[in-house]
Amino acid sequence: MVDELMQLEAGDVLVLDQDVSFPLLVYVENEPCFYAFPGKRGRSLAVRIAGTVTEEWPRPDELDQEGGTALWPTVTTA
Questions:
Q1: CA distance 15 to 78
Q2: pTM for this structure?
Q3: Domains in the chain and their CATH numbers?
Q4: Phi, psi values for residue 16, rounded to 5°
Q5: Which of 31, 48, 50, 68 holds its CA 20 to 30 A away from the CA of 74?
Q6: What pLDDT, in 10s, does the model give residues 27-51?
């Protein structure tokens, strides 16, 4: 798997096992901290923080494994 990652090139597509309307989980020091959507800002890749893993948003282990409805903001790129 590491070999495959090392061979990625500009323009390659990563298919995530997740609905696009659901945010990605961002970890800091191996702890889930934020929910964010991937995107671009200018020429750089970026993430837009949608919320924190607190009472405001459920922890990953509390989420419905089936995904549920799209209650999350959508990402737009310019």
A1: 22
A2: 0.49
A3: 2-60 (2.30.330)
A4: -95, 145
A5: 31
A6: 888 888 888 888 888 888 888 888 8
